[in-house]
Write a structure and sequence with these properties.
It is a single chain. This protein has two domains: 151 residues, Roll (Pdz3 Domain); 161 residues, 2-enoyl-CoA Hydratase, Chain A, domain 1. By secondary structure, the chain is of the alpha+beta class. The chain starts with 44 loop residues before the first strand and ends in a 5-residue tail after the last helix. The protein has nine helices and 20 strands. The relative contact order is 0.19. Helices cover 23% and strands 26% of the residues. Strand 8 and strand 9 form a beta hairpin.
Length: 397
């Protein structure tokens, strides 16, 4: 792999990063949605006719980072560690450094598969890591683990005080977590506590699920924007019965590939602007493809776990009046990140800019406040209200 900044970077729309809710756990293949744009810019990416702002103060020059890593290696020190310290001091709150094997696993996860135990986790309080989602048919599901269970230890090590990224590394096994290897999880559920030993497996991401609701509407749940997800959303909308409304559930969606979120937006838009973003001060824009369904009623359901690329889609549908948004304020990750390969083969994900919604609203650190704010811990009331709104729009039978 070449040293220095990647000449064909791929900004991301999430799935990973410092202190983020996770996506594909077990390897909990992180996905801190950074603005995941593909390495090869799709036709949807075009320059926006706007003045370029100055470079953000919280960004890191990849060349400086590469030099810091190279100098550490020349002194017999860890280039990865030096890079981590450099990023930590830089003020780039979304920046992170990953080992070569860890980054390759993440790339595979973005392609739609990963090695792990089939659960997603999130930070729930200062010292609490809990399971947010269990993948049907995966090792965690077969062992009876549930969303809401607390993870206390991994292979005997306490998770107290650890960041989500550190927990991910333990679940993954520091590069040794191949299919067939085992990991012991200390779990708590209410007053019960036990240790569950799971065998990691190669799993396909179940990132899009579709089901017909009892009132005739169609619920499309998107867990993350991995490869192919955008087209699967479009297919689901095309297959929905005529006149049936769509409840687009983006709760807990930590992001992924921005290009996929743009394709998903194309399911509901007939061309037009999806978002603007900047890379090192150069303004660009994302546009939907033509031919989307612009008549079908749509309600987007969001919460504090709706991040990055998922926020980009939410902002596009909200600003362009294509969906009523229901739930709680989204996470607030509107950073665009790109990977840079360092001299020792490790990879740094660095913030290079930020994106804005079609109406020009910034998302980073702010999130998106839905049209109808409904707060409840389990999300049941929010979903009920969303279904009521959709019915009122004529989306139910």
């Amino acid at each position: 792999m070449p040293t220095g900044p990647d000449p064909s970077p791929r900004p991301r729309g999430v799935l990973r990063g410092a202190a983020l809710t996770l996506v594909f756990a077990g390897v909990l293949a992180t996905a801190a949605a950074t603005g995941a744009l593909p390495r090869q810019e799709p036709t949807a990416l075009k320059r926006a006719p706007q003045a370029a702002p100055a470079r953000d103060r919280d960004t890191v020059d990849p060349a400086d980072l590469s030099r810091a890593a190279a100098e550490a290696m020349a002194d017999g020190k860890s280039g990865k560690q030096a890079a981590q310290e450099f990023v930590s001091r830089s003020g780039d709150r979304w920046g992170a450094v990953y080992g070569k094997a860890e980054f390759e696993e993440f790339e595979q996860a973005l392609d739609g598969s990963y090695t792990g135990v089939g659960l997603s986790a999130r930070k729930a309080g200062a010292d609490r890591i809990e399971i947010s989602r269990v993948q049907a048919g995966g090792p965690a599901a077969k062992a009876g683990l549930r969303a809401g269970d607390r993870l206390v230890t991994v292979d005997g090590r306490s998770l107290a005080g650890l960041s989500v990224s550190e927990v991910v590394a333990l679940l993954r096994g520091d590069g040794a977590g191949r299919a067939g290897s085992t990991v012991a999880l200390g779990v708590e559920r209410g007053r019960a506590a036990w240790t569950e030993t799971l065998t990691r497996a190669r799993l396909a991401n179940d990132d899009v699920t579709v089901r017909r609701l009892d009132d005739g509407a169609v619920l499309i749940k998107v867990a993350a924007f991995t490869k192919g997800v955008g087209e699967r959303v479009r297919e689901a909308v095309r297959a929905a019965p005529a006149g049936a409304g769509v409840l687009l559930d983006l709760r807990g969606n930590a992001g992924g590939l921005v290009a996929e979120a743009t394709v998903a937006a194309s399911a509901f838009l007939d061309g037009g602007l999806v978002a603007t973003y900047d890379i090192d001060g150069e303004q660009r824009a994302l546009y939907a493809q033509s031919g989307g369904d612009t008549a079908r009623p749509v309600v987007a359901l969001v919460d504090g776990g709706t991040m990055s690329a998922a926020e980009l889609l939410t902002g596009a549908l909200k600003d362009r009046g294509r969906a009523v948004t229901v739930g709680s304020r989204t996470f607030g990750k509107g950073a665009v990140q790109m990977p840079s390969t360092l001299p020792d083969g490790s990879v740094a994900e660095l913030t290079v800019g930020h994106y804005r919604t079609p109406a020009g609203h910034g998302v980073d650190g702010l999130g998106i406040t839905p049209d109808l704010v409904v707060g409840d811990s389990k999300g049941e009331r929010a979903e009920e209200r969303a279904r009521t709104v959709l019915s009122g729009l004529g989306g139910g039978s």
